[in-house]
Specification:
Elements (H helix, E strand, L loop, with lengths): L1 E3 L5 E4 L1 H7 L3 H4 L13 H14 L3 E8 L5 E8 L9
Antiparallel strand pairs: 1-2, 3-4
């Protein structure tokens, strides 16, 4: 599981995400999607992120991610925007 802020910064990752990607605690957080995303999917993913935030509606899609062993695998991604208490 991964949590993102509205600026597309990963601000939460669980142990399963770190094990799957092989990333350290420091590398797992931040805005650099290219360390895990399939290169051809970066532009599509960034557009989906912006559209999801603008519409406020969840999106279900398959994404290709780099695993810890360097292979690429498809995963179901559910992006669901939610407002924080401060934003309400």
């Amino acid at each position: 599981m991964v949590g993102y802020s509205t600026d597309a910064r990963r601000d939460f990752v669980n142990a399963a995400w770190k094990q799957y990607t092989g990333l350290s605690d420091e590398a797992a957080l931040g805005t650099d999607w290219s360390i895990v995303a399939y290169p051809d999917d970066l532009a599509i993913g960034e557009k989906m992120w912006r559209d999801t935030l603008a519409k406020g509606e969840p999106v279900h899609t398959e994404v290709r991610l780099r695993r810890a062993d360097g292979s690429i695998a498809g995963l179901l991604s559910i992006v669901s925007p939610c407002a924080t208490r401060a934003a309400r």
